[in-house]
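ok here's Acetylglutamate kinase, seq below lol
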Amino acid sequence: MSTALAPNALGKEQAQVLAEALPYIHAFHGKTFVIDYERSNVGHPVAWNSLGRDLALLSLVGLRLVVIHRGNVLNAELVSLINRHGGRAAGLTGVDGRFLQLRTAPMEAQCNGGLEIGVIDTTLLQMHFAKGFLPVIRPLASAPDGQVHPADGAQVAAALAAHLRASKLIVMRDAAGLTDANGQIVHRLSATEAETLGAEGRNAHLVRALRAGVGAVHVVDARRPDVLLLEILTRESRGTLVLPDGLASLVATSARYLSTDE
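and the structure came out like this:
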């Protein structure tokens, strides 16, 4: 008498996760995602290793990724980590090919040494994309005097996402998401809500990116292993999802409609 193999519970769960991820992989194939990794240090080695693996996997299934990498860890370390997991990462700075250039900021907006992002030339990035590379960028830039200056990484990531018309800007930081006045995580916001939520224009660069055509902004906890895969390839946002005003309104209306009892 033949006996059928009993399904393994873990195997079924893994198969379900893969089945859930498939529509997202299909929808995002060839789309551009900008990842702003703003941790000051590596932190937990499991989360760090997960970052390299997740970036390699997402690149291999067809997402077009750019990482803005800042903090105390060398750019080469993240490049090496991604490549060890089978990706094809290449380390760059904004000085390479002069693709990131600074200009003198207006008096009322002067900070960071009186400089702001001026020119972003994505030609070099497009060349890397065409060859299947994942650019990992250190936010250094050329100043008007020809010197190399550090640029604000958050501003670079948002501006680059806008120039590339990215489908998503994903901000990875040591926090579970954006918080309200009571310190509670807000899981979904419109651009206007995010603008009013941030004290002293804290979220202004994210709002500008959305209004320039970026499809969505995700703010996620970089300390959590697998956070990129969970955020991109599953239904629920684990951090904060910020949508353009019109789309946010449509999503909210749809959610209310679907939750209404017949």
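fwiw The domain at 26-259 is CATH 3.40.1160.10 (Carbamate kinase). kinda neat tbh
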